[in-house]
Amino acid sequence: MIFDKPRKLFSLFRSHDISKDFDSSLSKSLKKYGKVISIQEKKDIACEFELVFDRIYILVSGKAFLSRIEKDGRKIIFDILEEGSILGNLDFLSKEKLNPLDPLYIEPLSANIIKLYEFNKQNFLEVLSKNPTFALHILSDFSGRISRLEKKIEAIALSQIKFRLLYELIQLSSPHEILKDSFRMDIKITHEKLAEITGVVRETVSKTIKQLKEEGFIRFDKQKNMIISLEKKRESKYSFLNTSLF
Question: Does domain 4-153 have CATH number 3.50.50.60?
């Protein structure tokens, strides 16, 4: 597995409980120096917010997709953000003048509402100076993102659409309370959205999900929630599934 030693180092940062960072002192600083942005996904209507390239954002409520629009018009989703994620101009300590990059977009996950705080570089550094322990949260968020990118690189390198799709489905799910090696997806997500996440066409996603259902990796419970089961990984023909990546 690539980058094994750095991953162990990053796990030390991820052990930090980021929920403790959002105490009253930090909340006051966020409200004082940040601009509040609320975004709500409407049914069947994409609600994408373009991030200003020289701003820093903190996702304080909800889950969201982070995406980029390619020159051919395709949207590529390359990360799923949790509460506490930091995004935008992550090079905020650099003294060099930044050049605009291709814009990034954030959109709510599955018809919920997300809340962001937007900062310019100076105001974000003010928040850090008044809340020095917040730096631990930043390290935790960055290390988690690097780890997710490592896993995605490995999934792409394996060139198995089944593997890539299973990986993304599990990222959108929670461990099942009862079933071993199983995950439950409580949100509803379209095949088109999964195509944007995996970087393939919608028809390929539909075909692959059908195969995964036939092979026993996917089923639906009485509430129509998707259940992803990895019990099949014990069979030799599914040895390509390295579940340590999940």
Answer: no
